[in-house]
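Reviewers of the previous submission asked for a worked example of the structure-prediction workflow described in the proposal, so we include one complete record here. The input consisted solely of the amino acid sequence. No template or homolog information was supplied to the procedure at any stage.
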Amino acid sequence: MADATFSNTIIISDYVLTDTGSGYTLTFSGAYEYGSGGTVYDADDSDTASTGDYIFYPDAGNEYLGYTVEIDGETYALYSYTHTPTSIFIPHAGELDPADFVSGMAAAENSDVAVANCFAGDTLIATPSGEVRIDTLAAGDRVLTADGRDEEVLWVGKQTFRMIHGLYPQGDLVKISAGALGNGLPHRELTVTAEHAMVLDGMLVNAAALVNGKTIRLELAEQRNAEVTVYHVETARHEVLLANGAATESFVEASGRAAYDNHAEYLARFGEDRAIAEMSMPRVASARLLPAALRARLGLKDAAPVGQAWDVAVAV
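From that input alone, the workflow returned the following structure tokens.
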């Protein structure tokens, strides 16, 4: 998506984006046409809507949120509206009736906005010489796999989350208390992104599916920093590593490396992105799909479904 002009803007107010499990729903109290045109800026020259893109002018704070809505077969992006934090902009060209935006309409995650699957910087990764903070690992270091092998680190990806209206557009962070996964693991609190998988009972289970609201919980808005950097470890294959002692996954090319801040570093070393096949374990993204015994062990028997309440995506 190169920089592009638009002639009109719809503003919707008092909105909520809800993860329904099978998609997203956008509800709001009202919509009206702002009338002012402007420019959508492709901040990273990616030719697609992505985190950091914005409308009107630099530093206005009107950033791409990461969701799209579809009206009459056309897809429209959602941008933050800084003057009223409970409202959002929808830029468009030509004729569009605000009445066409109906509360309760479907919204979609933008597949071009990569959701990071990563660890917080203080995560301890097992290596042949002991545990090492992930934010100190570098290409060429060695890490231990859960079955005792040591593998070379090919790349450590890092991505900075910047908070918008109390949310990280790339996704939620999940905090796993010490011992919450059983057998005393992790041995200290572990923070990962919601779509990052822990390895449990032969399954790759996304952290969002583990949330029980007590020992495994989403990070609260008031606990979030304005910026947080998360990290991932790439090895030759998709492996089971140990993070704070708990089995977890190494990098797999599910959302692509381009979203990471240091993607250029990867290309400089390898020339191009390479595919990494996911290991053969089944991946579970929803708590309701977990076996009953594991749900009970994790305290999920009566837990309400939990998803990423705020992954926002857009394409124009």
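The first strand starts at residue 4 and ends at 6. We consider this example representative of the routine output the project will generate in years two and three.
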